[in-house]
Automatic annotation (TrEMBL):
Pfam families reported in the protein's UniProt record: DDE_3 (PF13358)
Domain Tc1-like transposase DDE, residue spans: 27-164
Domain of life of the organism encoding this protein: Bacteria
Protein's name according to its UniProt entry: Tc1-like transposase DDE domain-containing protein
Amino acid sequence: MFRTLLKNFQLSMILNTPGHVSLDRIDVWFQDEARFGQQNTTTHIWALKGSRPRSVRQQQFESAYLYGAVCPSTGATEAIIAPYASSEYMLEHLKLISEATEFGRYALIIMDGAGWHQQKLTEGFDNLSILKLPPYSPELNPVEQVWQWLRQNELANRCFSGYDDIVEQCSIAWNHFIAEPERVIKLCSRSWTKLTS
């Protein structure tokens, strides 16, 4: 079943790119967005044996959306932070990915079926297209693991004073994650995305 799903998905990857673009010039990107805010996660922490460390959990509701995209073959990344998720911010994120795509190369952006992930947003670009994941399959998008890494290693067990603080801490966390391109490649590479001509 999973093998059939992947074969169909690989075929879709090929069909969603222009015919004049050879497979060795296609960069596969994974894109997603996550909400970070004052309703933050708590995780296990190191403490002295026998002690009972405490972690504060905020009750406020301010948050921000981090749009993130990774290209596991190159280690390239792009991100923006927005107050909410919408088609307008998605378009801005696509612009960043388009600009980051090397001249002569083509970006195939794999994402889930969120309402603001609309195919029509790619009409103004000649170097990228969108391929949606099958429904109910977040495990196929390695950006989900990026969010988990950010929460566990950078943003958990924190209190945020407001929106600006959330944006600043998310920026610091994202920049710390992308500081090592090898980490991006190792965490996000998937063998089934390799296209060969």
